[in-house]
């Protein structure tokens, strides 16, 4: 066959190279763990651009708007009320160091977001028309935008289209990029130009390019370009040459072959690898781009690693690619967000295709025996694995101390030492555990049988454990001690002496799964948790407290003393310095690192195994078996994310409203329950971040929040609060600064100080009212009793007047008539004198009856009369009245008068006094009566309610004062003599009611007021 054109053969060869299957020659990104965050998990669709902010957030420009990603949640940009941005697709995104966010839209125009407020820029604000594709900022602080309508520059608050005065005469710009030297590169639809720092004229590189070209800078400083004419390639240093570059002619249209590796975006990761997003073909990675010479495009022969839909990529429509500060590579697709994180553990690819019922793992010096039911390999990285020659061990393979390997199946036990293989029959029953006995054999725990020893001589019962039942796990510890573990019970055999530990000793692990016994630590794991022995008792961390400590089936120490546990959630690492603290402080913080599938661990720890699932080889490498393979790591070279996360409090929810966190946050009155939402901005395995928080004034200690990102408090009252939270990344590096939020709960009306004061005043008023009511009740009772006594006195007076006095008067009249008939003068005179005395007695009795019935007249005058009557001329008497004399209740007046008469009489009869002073005081609150003499005084033992034995004068005075509701005191005066004080409350003493007193006071006040005005 003859070719009609010399150009046909090269074209066919190029087509064949372009169309052949790429994946057959390429390797997948097997050293990276792939994370897919789909739309169903909250991720937005149609992600066209990605940018990481200085705060650590990953911002996503999408067809659905602007989103923020903290590693766990996707949140829309929180615009303030009333603020809006165009709903168009976001093609360009730039986050500046000052926090400003610039958006470029597919429909044209740009927006600046600052503190929740949006400022829009269109043609009237200087923006070129058409869609905005890319932003870049130069060291001079200027912001550049590539748009379909041209190139624009933003400076001093104004956009300006760049034109001929800058040496830029292209009508559009597809891409802008600033390299580490500060050179600005612009891809136009037909050429590549650049602008050096400090210059104002663009220079042409001479590179002819197609539309939609993209750029990236390699670690070696070379600029890479990807476009449709020549594919993806490194460029010469055009900006470093002094002379303008000569134009490079594009390939002739007739001989141009399909381009290989045309990228939508380029990324150089920190390890120097080149990442490409290829539309329709997924994510590609070139491990060593430095081997590609300048000007040569990538070809199918280059060692490209690829990740496409067959590998798990959700969608082949991929555009943006970015590496965050923690080393994770993120790719945006039209079906969500994809992440690639470098694995820390290495698996054994030869075993990863299928589990075949489980995996074996046994260590001997630097070599490790791994395998499944069909394959057995001896591995010692970095050397390639080699096949284990000879009979295939089962998953129970275990090395004895002498180097022989034991395994068993069904009713047989096999021992291989070198090329010598021996076989023994074992007792019937299920084997629960296998452990080396420290010599040339192994121990087997057999259900229903106990513990047996398999040695080169055969199998026999291990007598040192007596009749012990079959344990679920066994281990040899220091000093030839042996530990047997059951369900919530551990037995330590030291020689022939067992020591048992159970729930009373802090053991609460459920059914035991493995024991780890070294001179550093003794730990026993079970289905419910892990317990550590401190020499006296166990301390348990339950799975219910943290799931990472559940279903542990392998425990090992690394050479540096760290503790590694292979469990149901992955491999847990506890630093040597944290082990004792974690187990000795119930409820304290759990500071650990978890390695899971994102770190290269294939699956989770294999359960129900007969041998531990974690071992250490002689080189210090750690090996783990899982339900999907075998993996290993070298702790000495393990990568660790030393960047603490940025802790942020995002919002506060109170009732049905959510408030953005900020200074001066005030919550509504009556708020009793709040939920504080916080986060740790760490994009690498963010779900493994841990938190501690406290609300000052409520929490005395820090709470271990685990991985929860909300804290709820109830039964709060009004006042000021301060919430503090700190976080750690997935590797246990803590952000000790943390975040703080001060907020105030406004008081309700009943919680205000004014209301409290009003309540106190009301209570005082109620108390005063209750007191007044009680006083009035007592006053009424006293008044009733006094009136009753007064009526009784009147009745007695009437009876005396109407019966006794009248009867005596009648008798006097009869005796008078008899006296007139007596003739004897002497006897008659005697009768006359008796009758005169009788008439005087009647007169005195009548006066007494009159006094009983008379209550009129001021008390002061009555006191003066009574004092003169009782003292005669024997004493010098002074009667004084202080205050406005007011009408008294009749009973009060009479009782006070009787008390005064008794006191004056005592002074006359017993005190030998020379002077007597009687003072009556009408006060605003109390009525006081004082009788004071200068006599010999009174015996203190008689100046009480009981008075002098056999006498009733003083006792009667106290009884009268008590009946009036007042007080009476009898005491010796300082200058000699006796002083009698009677005091009554005005409510019980004065005849007028309180309202009358108030009216009297009001009248007096009004009188004074009128007098003052007249003056």
Give the structure's gist in a few sentences.
The chain is of the alpha+beta class.
Report on this model:
- With 1015 residues, the protein is an alpha+beta fold.
- The termini are far apart.
- It is elongated and about 180 Å long.
- Helix 5 runs parallel beside helix 6 and helix 6 runs antiparallel to helix 7.
- The chain is 19% helix and 36% strand.
- It contains 9 helices and 70 strands.
- The strands form 17 sheets. Strands 1-25-24-23-22 form a 5-stranded mixed beta sheet, with no helix packed on it. The protein has a 5-stranded mixed beta sheet with strand order 59-65-64-61-62, with no helix packed on it.
- A hairpin with a 5-residue loop joins strand 26 and strand 27.
Feature tags:
five-stranded mixed β-sheet; 1015 residues; elongated; single chain; 70 strands; 9 helices
Shape: elongated
Could you estimate the helical fraction of the residues in percent? 10-25%
Number of strands: 70
Query: If you average the pLDDT, what whole number results?
Result: 86
Write the layout of secondary structure elements.
Layout: H1 8-19, E1 27-28, E2 32-38, E3 47-52, E4 58-62, E5 65-69, E6 74-76, E7 90-95, E8 101-105, E9 110-114, E10 117-121, E11 132-137, E12 143-147, E13 150-155, E14 158-162, E15 175-178, E16 184-187, E17 191-195, E18 203-208, E19 214-217, E20 223-227, E21 231-234, E22 265-268, E23 274-278, E24 282-286, E25 305-307, E26 318-323, E27 329-333, E28 336-342, E29 346-347, E30 360-364, E31 367-371, E32 376-380, E33 383-387, E34 398-399, E35 405-409, E36 412-417, E37 420-425, E38 431-436, E39 442-446, E40 450-455, E41 458-461, E42 473-476, E43 482-485, E44 490-494, E45 497-501, E46 512-517, E47 522-526, E48 529-533, E49 538-542, E50 554-557, E51 563-567, E52 570-574, H2 576-584, E53 593-595, E54 614-616, E55 622-626, E56 629-633, E57 646-654, E58 657-660, E59 665-667, E60 674-681, E61 690-696, E62 703-706, E63 710-713, E64 719-728, E65 734-745, H3 753-821, H4 825-853, H5 859-871, E66 876-882, H6 890-909, E67 915-922, E68 926-933, H7 953-963, E69 967-972, E70 978-985, H8 986-989, H9 994-1014
Parallel strand pairs: 1-25, 59-65, 66-67
Antiparallel strand pairs: 2-28, 3-4, 4-5, 5-6, 7-8, 8-9, 9-10, 11-12, 12-13, 13-14, 15-16, 16-17, 17-18, 19-20, 20-21, 22-23, 23-24, 24-25, 26-27, 27-28, 29-56, 30-31, 31-32, 32-33, 34-35, 35-36, 36-37, 38-39, 39-40, 40-41, 42-43, 43-44, 44-45, 46-47, 47-48, 48-49, 50-51, 51-52, 52-53, 54-55, ...
